[in-house]
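Encode chain A's predicted structure.
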Amino acid sequence: MSVQTAPQKTETKKKKWLRARHRILTDLARPMLRLLCKWRYGCEITPFAEQGDRQYLILSNHQTPFDQFYVATAFKGAVYYIATEDIFSLGWVSDLIRFLVAPIPIRKQMGDVKAVMNCIRVAREGGTIALFPEGNRTYSGKTEYMNPAIVGLAKKLRLPIAIFRIEGGYGVEPRWSDVRRKGSMQAYVREVIEPEQYQGLSDEAFRERIEAALFVDEGKPGGIYPHKQTAEYLERAVYICPHCGLSRFESCGDIVECKTCGRQVRYLPTKELEGVGFDFRFRFMTEWYDWQKDFINAFDTLAHTASPIYEDVADISEVIVYKNKRPLYKEAKLALYGDRVVIEAAGETLELPYADVTAMSCMGRNKLNIYWNDRVLQIKGDKRFNSLKYVNICYRSKNILKGNEDGKFLGL
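Encoded structure for chain A:
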């Protein structure tokens, strides 16, 4: 007589994303983080007293490299941040970050179904999730473009949304600068949007509400942010001169100079711009930055395919996503054309047509990620390297190639 046994389970139970150590470590670190935020950035953080025991989807604007710590200080317990693949490609450092806070990985500027599924998983386990819908720190002091996919994610998670506002960060440490200035900031929960308030909204109306709640424009009078190097590395953000068009700039102290026409602009502690010996047409960086975008959105990139628009020298690495970075070339020649980027190094030439480039993204202050076919190339130039021009011209060319010459999105 044979005895039938129950089939063996071959699948192992999936480990939980949420761990007690995430909450314990965050709670222990919070008092120190509060002091550090105040000392380093002059940031006054208002604790979210109404949080209770509820979980939230936290949406925040993005101004400084310290923004995630303002969020962690304002909220109780662990917060699970949606973070780009760059911090997951640092070898053992990435392993340590995963152990301590378990961020949710997402591929920057690309659709990522796995990231959405991981968010749903964290929400079902009772976790609070935080993300920066801009995906980029502001270059000008004004909130950048927000990916409309945030609407679909929020409706899937069905969590109350805490709108977290950071103000003054651009004055204290502009993205293009290497120095922090004395000044004040504030970070706080502006409002909570309950699921029953947004589930009935159209996607467009919901997106507009989120954008309006998070919008900050520091291109106006307010605050004093003194430093001897107020303009240094402004050339990371500007590459078009109002007087001579496409150009290069070089900064020193509180002055940035156009290397084509020689005009100099002073960046004042009030965030205002002032022409040296002439009347400069823009009062704040927001105005110059917006004008620069308008210039590129009217620029015929396909008329500039025979010779480079810009040339640079940079180090090239390949990002092995969620693992590490593999150096490819040191001091490679980089040429930006209207329809492609060309890399020359070690006797080799690598052409990256925009038609084959899935996305380009500015990383940090002076790095550029190119998502090309199935590879991610990271370009790191010198201190004065402007990655923004590569992103803007690539997306302008893509708009033209798609027959969308009126398209305004330039990658940020």
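The CA atoms of residues 30 and 73 lie 6 Å apart.
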